[in-house]
Amino acid sequence: MFALLRIFNKVVVQQFYQLNAGFFLVVFFLAFGIQQPPTMLVSPYFLTGAVTSSIFIFSVLGVFLLYYLKCFNFLLKTIRAPENEYLFITSLFPRRILWLSLGLTHLQLFLPALVYTLLISYYGLLTAHFWVIWVTTTYNLLLIFFTILYFHHQLAQTIPEKAIKNIFTSSEKRILAPPVLWPLRYLLRQEKVMLGLTKILSLGVLYAFMTLYPYPQYDLRPTYIGFLTAVITQAMLVQQVQQFQETALSFWRYLPYAHWQRFTYQVILFTLLLAPEIILLFRLNFNPAAIISLIFLVTFGISVILLLYTLLYLKLNRETYLKWVFFIYIGLLLFLLLHPPLYLLTILLFLLAYLLYYRNYYVYEQ
């Protein structure tokens, strides 16, 4: 059993936490970096009152269900990846060993949410709200049993895929005619869970900032910070887009387009990627006095996401890239708190992104 568990740990668990380090960093910052001690989600004062609310309990479980879907999707993609075909041999192990290994793998992936549900159960016990213990225990048992049964079936029945299907074989391939826009279709069809969870997180963050600190009761700096945070959460999507462009769209490099044309296409691509956040921004803050500032904020967000994209052409590994994303976020956060002219910062970021793109695009090799 331990040999099988070590395989799952190396192939699934370690890869999951390495690939999602940026996601956990953002969640940690939102949970602890901007909260006062009495309102922290793990503080005894907060939890003692919160566990008495069924709305809070079921909201937490709903959020954790989204996180479970993220874990589930990653595990499914990992098992079906062509380089991991050998995992299907694990179906020959005794059922008890395979089930136990899958269960422990689930617990390791779901550990952050599991710890918080145990904390909720503990405070439910202290406050004599025993229904909280029953609900969270049933919830966790249902998830772990579903994971075990589903992936046991997958390993026992699914024929390994020899290669990832080409997403351009369908009759819909000309819906997004310019090839540079095909990454959006790739995200919608092949990375639905990642795209959905990222958008839920980014829109939730932006909505929270704009409702807690509405304009004109407060100045626009909280809105700036909320939009910047929403943009930074797209970092993993940006990396998926760049990898897709450098693999499935490698031919695009050899087409006769000037640098500025290629860069303009990326501006269009990432503007469309940020469309939900832009719509929410104007929907919640449609104030004539703030329209110009919001337009500058949108262009600022596009310049930030372009900078994240062009950083990838420096051949950074994932860990180094996420460190750069974090430092850029902290640096821009401090700048926004100082309230500098946003258009000057936007111009500088656009110039820096274009310079990185111009210098590194043709010398980059996957």
Structure description:
The chain has helices at 2-19, 21-33, 44-50, 54-80, 95-109, 111-126, 130-157, 182-190, 192-212, 221-232, 235-247, 259-273, 275-284, 291-311, 318-338, 342-360. The protein is mainly alpha-helical. The chain has two domains: 2-157; 179-360, no CATH class. The radius of gyration is 23 Å and the shape is flat. The chain starts with a helix and ends in a 6-residue tail after the last helix.
Low-confidence stretches: 159-177
User: What is the averaged pLDDT score?
Assistant: 82
Shape assignment: flat
SSE topology string: HHHHHHHHHHHHHHHH
For the sheet with most strands, the description reads:
none
Helix content: over 70%
Distance between the termini: 37 Å
Q: How many structural units, i.e. domains?
A: 2
Radius of gyration: 23 Å
Strand content: under 5%
Tell me briefly what this model is.
The protein is mainly alpha-helical and 366 residues long.
Task: Name some characteristics of this structure.
mainly alpha, 2 domains, 16 helices, 72% helix, 0% strand
Write the layout of secondary structure elements.
Layout: H1 2-19, H2 21-33, H3 44-50, H4 54-80, H5 95-109, H6 111-126, H7 130-157, H8 182-190, H9 192-212, H10 221-232, H11 235-247, H12 259-273, H13 275-284, H14 291-311, H15 318-338, H16 342-360
Helix pairs in contact: 1-5, 4-7, 5-7, 6-7, 8-11, 9-10, 9-13, 10-14, 10-15, 12-14, 14-16
